[in-house]
User: What shape does this take?
Amino acid sequence: MDSPDSIIRKHAIRNAHEYGEANPGKVVGKVVNELPGAKKDMKALMGKIAAICKEVNALPRGELEKEFAKLPEKERKEEKSEIEIPDAVPGKVVVRFPPEPNGYPHIGHAKAFALSWTIARKYNGKAILRWDDTNPEAEKPEFVDAIRNGIKWLGLDWDDEKYCSDYMPEMYRLCEKLLWEGNAYACSCTQDEIGKGREMKERCACGSRTPQESLDEWKKMLNGATPEGGATVRLRGDMESLNTVMRDPTLFRIMEAPHYRQGLKYRAWPTYDFQGAVMDSLLGITHPIRSKEYELRDELYSFLLERLGMRVPKMISISRLSIRNAPLSKRLLRPLVEEGKVMGWDDPRLPTLEGLRRRGIVPDAIRKFVLSFGISKVESEPGWDKLLAENRKILDPIAPHYFFVPNPARVRIEGGKKKKLREMECRGEVWISGQDASGLEEGETIRLKDLYNVKVGKTGDTIEASYAGDEVGSGKKLQWVSEKLECEVLRPGNLVLDSGEFNPSSLTIDAGYCEKSIHSLKEGDMVQFERYGFCRLDSRKPLRFVYSC
Assistant: This one.
């Protein structure tokens, strides 16, 4: 039987291979499953796991892959997480993607899109792309196009497409039903007054209006007699409820801004609480998915539909995707774009789909990453490591290899043979990376990869060396280039600091030389710069790459 240390190391190696680094919290469950007796002293076990994970995370990537390859085949297989939903009838499941077109899509949207699409396909159901476009102040056709393109880029699709703003007459009819039956009322209070009343658990005087009086006020909201901010429609909930959401929430308010599709046709617009529930029921959605931050509103969701006599779908709550040091809120991202702190919505530091695409993160990696969280409600805040590990696994067998030397240093070779590699021809002078150059010592022999060996003589601004044979040895193997084709690599880092403030050092630039054969690439192509990483060709003039993983 394997020792406890070897079992821990096995799971740490596997976890690091799959997610970029070994996470003790992920490893402990696997270890306990294999060694149930270890639970007797969890403190000691966690200490041992943390120490071994630290050792594994310190391994160079190549060494990690060698250790992973030594594991038995059954240990190397990835775990497949099946997504199961309650009360799902094959062929009858209907889900929706409900984006509001008020910004560019990000990886959080990708999770919702991918989960809904996967559920629809698994159960031979239907996926509806539903535009929650009932806030005319924030929505634009530009964002509709960006979201639609983002979904397609992820390799997802939809079976039907609906705009909530097209259902305004039906939503007006349902609002009037609530008013007429006394389940809602028109309220003329200010937002401050409404807030104070909800805090004190006291319904305002407007709540005593008769159904006809409320309907008369509603008509004024529709015909322009009441100004913006002058009235709302509120659901008659429960002002005594411990769930503050149920204390007569607002269902409709006046918004004068022109709508990007409807123009000035409507001026009373539903809130998300009304529109979301009603549209799910109207469109036959069986299993709506939304993040658990809305769980307190689930009571309101059901209450409203029951008052309207409408079908109540089976809500699925999931954890909201959060990425460490990368805010997903448009409220936080928009100022960074508008203030010029980033290059735009496609800045490779951003968690937007445009930013991830520019960084060279492929759709398959994003889908695997977001689906790995399943429909769990367990909160987590992973870094980018897991996504980058998925990306690396996909790119490794397909990305062509090239040489790139950042911060280049010149090497002059005495007696070097004229030799050609791809389009690089060595005539006794090459450039190596500044980092490699700084570690050289006089008298040592190094291998210029795929070329020949040289013996280091004098070091300094220019390294003097001499030809030392062709036989491949066990010494250092260094990348090199023979021509000074200048290029730069943008290296994205954490967008924000742990404090939540913008990180001014979140983008660095590695300038250097790359081999001439790079000219055969097209913008958007992925390459592997050996001993450096995977990069995407961002621009040909100037020659610029973005570091991916």
The chain has a mean pLDDT of 92. Residues 409-478 form one domain. The first strand starts at residue 94 and ends at 97. The longest helix spans residues 4-19.
